[in-house]
Amino acid sequence: MGRIYDATWGRMFSAAYDRGFKASEEAGLRQMRRELLAQARGRVLELGAGTGLNLDLYPEGIESLVLSEPDPHMTKQLRRKLSESSRQAEIVEAPAEKLPFDDSSFDAVAVTLVLCTVPDPAAALSEVKRVLKPGGQLLFLEHVRSRSPELAKWQDRLERPWRFLADGCHCNRDTVSAISAAGFDLDDVEHPEFPNVPPLVKPMAQGTATVPA
Questions:
Q1: Residue range 98-109: average pLDDT?
Q2: Helix (H, G, I), strand (E, B) or coil at 49
Q3: How many CB atoms lie within 10 A of CB 200?
Q4: Are 82 and 67 in contact (CB under 8 A)?
Q5: Range of the domain at 120
Q6: Are 69 and 78 in contact (CB under 8 A)?
Q7: What pTM does this model have?
Q8: What is the mean pLDDT of residues 45-73?
Q9: Domain tally for the chain?
Q10: How far is the CA of 115 from the CAs of 3, 9, 107, 110, in angstroms?
Q11: What is the Cα–Cα distance from 22 to 108, expressed in whole angstroms?
């Protein structure tokens, strides 16, 4: 019963995903995505591409784009969106913790609202570092653990029900520390607020991190 419920909820969640983010996208989230992805260069991998909300935001000058997504319901929408876009990209169904790419395959990896949900963020970041070239960049835009102790306390208290409602999303992950612990050199990191969402997931981190050359 649990697996049937999970599959049903996952299908419903993916179907409502774009509509659920519409207000946030219009209130500034899409512009945050655009500014982040404008930095992408060369061969680019997007991890957890979801329904393809970033698809048309990459600069035209990139060499290639690979979209990795493990969820079959999300991938179905992603394929449809790609077929309707002028963007050229390859879709690969794979988990973040086990990427089917050679070492040093990409110049940039992008993650937007992904590291909150992956089952094992340390393993995912290790894979990202492996597939990036030395000097390659991780571009990230994530909602994260609050720097306010009081709000962080509530994130801890409500993490389990939020994770259930948000299809596996953890509201209290210290993603910036995890990126640093994975061996990346953090560049400039900004802390905007996630627009039009509950306070629990408003804290964000946006920035770049580099694989040491």
A1: 98
A2: coil
A3: 19
A4: yes
A5: 2-210
A6: yes
A7: 0.91
A8: 95
A9: 1
A10: 23, 20, 19, 11
A11: 27
